[in-house]
Design a protein that fits this description.
The structure holds two protein chains of two kinds. Chain A is built from 27 helices and 20 strands. By secondary structure, chain A is an alpha+beta fold. Chain A folds into five domains: 196 residues, no CATH class; 206 residues, no CATH class; 159 residues, no CATH class; 176 residues, no CATH class; 154 residues, no CATH class. In chain A, the strands form three sheets. A six-stranded mixed barrel of chain A has the order 3-4-9-6-8-7. The model of chain A has no long low-confidence stretch (mean pLDDT 84). Chain B is of the alpha/beta class. Chain B has one domain: Rossmann fold, CATH 3.40.50. A six-stranded mixed beta sheet of chain B has the order 6-7-8-3-9-10, sandwiched between helices. In chain B, a hairpin with a 2-residue loop joins strand 9 and strand 10. In chain B, helix 3 runs parallel beside helix 5 and helix 4 crosses helix 5. The longest helix of chain B has 16 residues. Chain B is globular and about 50 Å long. The N and C termini of chain B lie far apart (35 Å). Classes of the chains: A alpha+beta, B alpha/beta. The interface between A and B is medium-sized, with 29 and 36 residues.
Chain lengths: 1110, 233
């Protein structure tokens, strides 16, 4: 009977019952969903770890492991599976030329498995698979090639191949986080992880050992049980490791020292050798220079000799011309006088013969005897032989000799030779003429001998004198003088010819010499350039080698004990981060549902109070009939509990359906997670159901109990209405008087029904707060991109360089292009930062202070005050400074590009969202590290990014171009995924607002049915009646919304702190528009509720006003 | 023509299969300024008459003419206006708004009509000028009912309808309330229709309409209505 009454009660007050169900449903769904997110996150990944047999421990040793070490590890009793890997870090270049720091891992047969996403596993030693979350989209695909290389070393010392085919894409449990941590290559961030078959590795030692521990996979990887177990094992591993490594240290120290001294020797040798080579080269260059100067002097001499020779030739030519004119005149006179048309030579020859004959005749006239004739003939014949002899033996050879001298001899020799040749030629002519005359004489003498007459001789002499105009002797002598002149002329001409030849030869020689000098000079220039380059290279090498040695000394001082670094799962970046994130999710799951819990309590209180008020008379009757208080209370408890149960069951399923999926999907933005495990954490079910059931029961108990404390007789009478109270506003009568009665009622009601006030305000505030959180999360993350790339970075492209050898040209090309606003060459490198007992890594950017301030708008932490890079210290990024407690004015120890440690002064801490940076001026770097800066990138702010690559790609030293606009686009795509979360939040917030507001309107209407009916009877119109109810709800919504805005900010801070990540500083700002959205949507929710309230209000019958008060 | 004409009015409620005739061909008339008592036992149909006369319900048949207007043909909006401007209603359980003071309850009604009386004046008229700023919970039943009357009267209605106004009151306070009503009629010349099951009150009316089983049993004119003071019940 009693229970039927309860059922009927539910039926009659279904709306109220339903609102109880709904608030429990929403609260439980939210609580259950959020609370379960942590176990789901943890267990999904734990299952994944177990499935793939992820190592429990990884051991590194700076000195590698040999087979003995491996065997020793394997023989430990707690080791289940063990895998030694020769994993190594290299650089890779894909088909697009994209260079990434790449870890090459070794495929294992028995552990550290993975999930194949695409393609197949590698089978040959030139195939590899890529871990999917480590690769940037699109750049790596199955079938593509990947070239592996090292900058300073030959890759073949480590790996069998250098070009690999990508055959598959995998997910690896060890590399879940998108951020992978640091590689072993000069602290560079690790970008990419690939797996290759184990026959690829050529190193003779192992770099790392993985092993799993017996029984550990039965435990949940994130549980304290697992952690405790692993810690005990870790102690064992450590003591075992200590034994292994004790011996090693001394050996290593010795090796290390030897290596350093060897390095130093090598350096000294290299330095000396290099210097010697350079000196030798320098000497050669100097010699060449002197040679050129000598050649030039000689050339000058040659040139002056040439001009002397030329002027002499001119003089000779003038003399020749005048001489030949006079001689030719004489010759002409002689020839004309002869009148027989004979040439002077013919005339002179005949004259010579005649003159010889004349002389012979004169001699003969003196002797006059036949015997004398014979004697004369013999004498003349002897004379001829003698002449002939002289010609043959003396004159001809001398002539040839002279000719030869003129042709080949030196200047001086030629001069005298030419003179002598003239004389020799004259002697030859004379001798030859004498021989012919003598022959003629002999003939005549023989004739005369026969005639033997003396008269004939005189006759003959006279004839000859007559023939030559009186005296043959005179004529002959004049002829001979002319002939002599002619010979002299001939000699002069010869001299001119020879001199001309000599001049042209000298000219040729001058040209040759000039050419040789020019060639020598250009060779010298090349030589000098080579020499300068060699000096630069030499200095660079020495500088690097010296830095290495300095570093080696530093290292030696701090030589780590030959330590095995033992890493459990939590020591791994991705697991560590994930563990924290899961914990933080747990925190959110614990704290955020408190709001819902509170609202549920208030809803329950309001509803039950109203219910009991309505049931007052009935309670009185039951009490009068003799039912005990407990029996009556139990009726209402059953009512509340059944609502709670229904709400819980539906809420648990809805919550589990929606929240874990949404949360898990969101974490997938940051981790490469396995498929979500569909868990149903029964302990959370119990927690949620118990929490809400207890809450509802306690609230109900106290509400009902309060009514029951009255005597049954009192219960049968109407409850004395709660006293209305004046509100403070009434004191300001000029305002109060102007208020309509609905406003007055509203004002008084707000004070009068505190539970309802708080329920509504908190509920609506919760709704607004959630909406603020939803948009705020998006703002915070979107802000990061907008501020970092749009405000702090004042550049949109980065040019990567192979080296800085051609940087001047590339820089000029960029500077001269007017579409580029700013160009800043920058040296970037990763540096360790040495903190108390800890080493962390950040990026160091070194640039010219002025240019740096062009491309960075660094700001202080008030997000306003501009910070400038200067020469007195460095600027460090916010997140790093905060996490490690670094303030302006502190000194931190960092490394130079070559690994030299030094303390730098922190001038300022700047606003920064992604990753950790130190900004430093080139001068400061120089001062601190005493090392020159070698720029390896150029930041460019340009308005013409599309053509930048074309302008640069053919320049030497250009490596690649990064377009920041694309980076922004990628990130924005990622952020769009957050819209899903916002949708869920809107739905949840809406549900919360609806339940609270509907509950409020229901309670208000049911409580005021009589008043409303009365007002209707009094002739109030529908809209007047609506406003009677609506004003209050609207006002509560407005207040709730206003309270919700700051509440949302607080919640937002809380959540942003929870999803805080090591490398990213999320924005804390919620945009004004987000507040506007949150508030507007809250008001819209209220208006929707009010809209649907109009109908029940209209349906209230006026007859209600006539009924008696219960 | 009378101020109010009830002509052949019938009212049928459909309760599932059953048809209940609450009024069956009821006719009567009321003159302006008349104090009318509608008398009948529970379920006789007097509340239905009140509802129809008060514009809270419409007749199924016949016509109801008030001051020349036929309200039986009026739509919802016209009925609201009728209630708003023409009717003053006094409930058995006063139906004051708990959240408003006595004066504010009066002003609540004033706010909606065209030619209201001053709230202070009306409250003085019902003898409550000292309790104007009290909330209903601070007033006795009689005082509350007088506030309710003030609220109804302040609208300056054509017709004051009272539904068992003394039903929840003790004898003494009931008499005070009745006195106020009678004064309204006789002194202020307001037309008052009062519904009651208490036959003893019949004498204070000028016209007594007796209702029984949905029919008019009798309409009696009382030439000399008794003063409330003289009535014993």
């Amino acid at each position: 009977m009693f229970h039927r009454d309860t059922l009927r009660l539910i039926k009659n007050t279904f709306n109220r019952f339903f609102s109880l169900v709904m608030i429990v449903l929403i609260g439980v769904a939210f609580m259950m969903g959020l609370l379960s997110s942590r176990p789901i996150m943890e267990q999904s990944v734990d299952r994944y770890y177990d499935d793939k047999k992820l190592q429990d421990f990884q051991i590194y040793s700076s000195y590698g492991f040999d087979q003995n070490d491996i065997n020793a590890i394997r023989s430990q009793e707690y080791v289940k599976d063990c895998f030694a890997s020769k994993m190594t870090d290299v650089l890779s270049r894909n088909d697009d030329g994209n260079v990434q720091v790449t870890r090459v891992e070794e495929l294992s047969r028995n552990m550290n498995g993975f999930q194949l996403v695409e393609g197949r596993m590698p089978m040959k030693n030139n195939e590899l698979v890529i871990v999917s979350n480590t690769m940037s989209e699109g750049s790596y695909k199955v079938g593509g090639k990947l070239e592996l290389y090292l900058e300073d070393e030959d890759i073949h010392e480590y790996l069998r191949n250098d070009v690999y085919t990508i055959v598959g894409i995998v997910k690896a449990p060890g590399y879940m986080a998108k951020a992978l941590g640091t590689s072993n290559l000069k602290n560079m961030e690790l970008d990419l992880v690939v797996y290759v078959t184990n026959d690829n590795f050529l190193a003779d030692y192992f770099t790392t050992v993985y092993f799993t521990v017996k029984d550990a996979s039965d435990m949940e990887s994130f549980s304290s049980e697992y952690k405790e177990y692993i810690e005990t094992i870790e102690e064992d591993v450590k003591s075992f490791a200590n034994r292994q490594q004790d011996n090693l240290k001394e050996t290593l120290l010795a090796d290390y020292r030897e290596e350093i001294s060897k390095g130093e020797e090598e350096l000294a040798e290299k330095k000396a050798e290099g210097q010697a080579q350079l000196d030798e080269a320098k000497q050669e260059l100097d010699d060449a220079k002197i040679q050129i100067i000598a050649s030039e002097t000689q050339l000058e001499t040659m040139r002056s000799a040439l001009s002397t020779a030329e002027s002499r030739v001119k003089a000779l030519q003038r003399q020749y011309d005048s001489d030949s004119e006079s001689v030719n005149a004489k010759v002409k006179v002689i020839e004309e006088k002869d009148g027989k048309g004979r040439s002077f030579e013919q005339i002179f020859t005949e004259a010579s013969t005649d003159y010889a004959t004349y002389n012979a005749l004169i001699r003969m006239k003196a002797s006059q005897s036949a015997s004398q004739y014979q004697e004369s003939i013999t004498r003349i014949q002897n004379e001829n032989a003698e002449l002939q002899n002289r010609l043959n033996n003396e004159l001809y050879p001398r002539r040839d000799q002279l000719n030869n001298t003129i042709a080949n001899g030196s200047e001086a020799e030629r001069e005298s030779a030419i003179t002598e040749l003239g004389q020799v030629n004259a002697q030859i002519t004379e001798a030859e003429t004498q021989i012919r005359v003598n022959e003629l004489l002999i003939e005549n003498l023989q004739n005369m001998d026969e005639q033997s007459s003396g008269t004939n001789i005189d006759q003959m002499i006279a004839d000859l004198d007559n023939k030559y105009g009186g005296s043959i002797e005179t004529t002959y002598i004049s002829y001979a003088a002319v002939a002599q002149d002619q010979l002299r002329l001939q000699a002069t001409s010869e001299e001119i010819r020879i001199a001309n030849e000599a001049i042209s030869r000298v000219n040729q020689e001058i040209r040759n010499a000039e050419y040789e000098i020019a060639a020598g000079k250009s060779q010298l220039a090349n030589g000098e350039k080579e020499y300068r380059e060699a000096v630069i290279t030499f200095n660079e090498e020495i500088e690097k080698a010296e830095a290495e040695i300095r570093k080696a000394y530093q290292d030696l001082e701090e030589l780590p004990d030959a330590k095995w670094i033992i890493l459990d799962r939590d020591s791994h970046y991705s697991t560590y981060m994930y563990t924290n994130n899961a914990k933080q999710m747990g925190a959110i799951g614990t704290y955020l549902p408190i709001l819902f819990y509170l609202v549920a309590a208030l809803v329950c209180m309001t509803t039950m109070t109203r219910l009991v008020d309505e049931q007052r008379g009935q309670i009185g009757i039951f009490r009068a009939l003799g039912f005990s208080k407990n029996e009556i209370i139990s009726k209402y408890l059953i009512y509340a509990v059944s609502a709670t149960m229904i709400g819980s069951v539906v809420g648990i399923f809805l919550g589990m359906l929606i929240f874990p999926t949404v949360i898990y999907t969101t974490w997938r933005l940051m981790y490469d997670l396995p498929d979500m495990l569909k868990l149903f954490p029964i302990e959370n079910v119990i927690i949620c159901v118990l929490a809400f059931t207890l809450l509802m029961m306690v609230v109900t108990y106290f509400v009902v109990r309060k009514s029951l404390d009255e005597m049954p007789s009192q219960l049968l009478r109407p409850k004395a209405p709660k006293n209305a109270r004046k509100v403070f506003l009434e004191n300001i009568s000029f305002i109060w008087k102007k208020l309509s009665f609905t406003s007055k009622i509203t004002a008084r009601n707000l004070i009068r029904y505190k539970a309802r006030f708080f329920m509504t305000v908190i509920g609506v505030a919760g709704c607004t707060g959630l909406l603020v959180v939803g948009w705020g999360i998006k703002d915070s993350i979107a802000d990061v991109v907008a501020i970092q790339f749009g405000e702090i970075y004042n550049y949109n492209y980065v040019v990567n360089l192979k080296d800085d050898h051609n940087i001047t040209e590339i820089n000029e090309v960029l500077e001269n292009d007017l579409t580029n606003e700013y160009v800043a060459p920058t040296m970037t490198y990763s540096s360790k930062v040495y903190l108390d007992g800890e080493e962390k890594v950040l990026s160091v950017y070194v640039m010219d202070a002025r240019k740096g301030n062009d491309v960075y708008n660094l700001r202080a932490l008030d997000y306003k005050t501009p910070l400038k890079i200067n020469n007195s210290g460095v600027i460090i990024s916010q997140k790093f400074a905060n996490v490690n407690g670094i303030k302006a004015g502190d000194y931190v120890t960092i490394e130079s590009k070559n690994g030299i440690k030094a303390d730098v002064r922190v001038n300022d801490v700047c606003e920064m969202y992604f990753q950790h940076y130190i900004y430093m001026s080139t001068d400061y770097y120089d001062e601190i590290f005493q090392e020159p800066v070698h720029y390896n990138t150029i930041a460019v702010k340009t308005t013409d990014g599309a053509n930048l690559e074309d302008k640069l790609k053919d320049l030497e030293g250009f490596e690649s171009l990064i377009d920041f606009t694309q980076v922004i686009d990628q990130f924005n795509t990622m952020i769009e995924a957050l819209d899903y979360i916002i949708l869920v939040i809107i739905i949840t917030a809406g549900a919360l607002a609806f339940v609270v507001l509907i509950n409020l309107t229901q309670v208000n209407i049911s409580e005021r049915i009589r008043e409303i009916a009365t007002l209707k009877v009094l002739g109030f119109r529908n809209n007047e009646i609506n406003s009677y109810i609506f004003k209050e709800i609207m006002l509560l919504s407005i207040i709730g919304g206003l309270v919700g805005l700051p509440l949302g900010v607080v919640e937002h801070h809380f959540i942003m702190n929870v999803i805080d990540m090591e490398m990213i500083k999320f924005g804390n700002n919620v945009k004004v528009m987000s507040f506007v959205y949150a508030y507007a949507i809250t008001i819209v929710f209220t208006l929707i509720v009010l809209f649907f309230t109009r109908k029940p209000l209209r349906k209230i019958e006026m007859i209600e006003s006539l009924k008696s008060v219960e | 023509m009378s101020f109010i004409e009830f002509k052949n009015v019938s009212k049928v409620y459909q309760m599932g299969e059953v048809e209940i005739r609450a009024l069956d061909d009821v006719s009567f008339s009321i003159d302006k300024g008349e104090f009318v008592i509608v008398l009948g036992a529970s379920g006789a149909g007097k509340t239905t008459i009140l509802n129809i006369l008060g514009g809270m319900d419409v007749a199924s048949g016949g016509s109801v003419i008030v001051d020349g207007k036929d309200i039986s043909k009026a739509n919802e909006r016209e009925l609201t206006d009728y209630r708003r401007f023409d009717i003053g209603f006094v409930f058995q359980f006063y139906n004051l708004v708990q959240n408003l003071t006595a004066r504010e309850n009066v002003e609540l009604a004033l706010q909606i009509c065209n030619d209201p009386l001053d709230s202070r004046f009306v409250l003085k008229m019902v003898g409550l000028e000292d309790r104007m700023d009290n909330f209903p919970s601070q007033l006795s039943g009689g005082e509350q009912q007088r506030v309710a009357i003030a609220r109804a009267v302040a609208k300056n209605p054509k017709l004051l309808l009272c539904d068992e106004p003394t039903g929840a009151l003790d004898y003494k306070t009931g008499k005070q309330v009745l006195k106020v009503l009678q004064d309204m009629c006789f002194k202020q010349n307001m037309t008052v229709v009062m519904i009651t099951h208490n036959g003893a009150l019949a004498d204070m009316g000028q016209k007594i309409i007796r209702v029984k089983s949905g029919n008019i049993e009798s309409v009696t004119i009382n030439e000399n209505p008794k003063d409330v003071e003289e009535i014993e019940y």
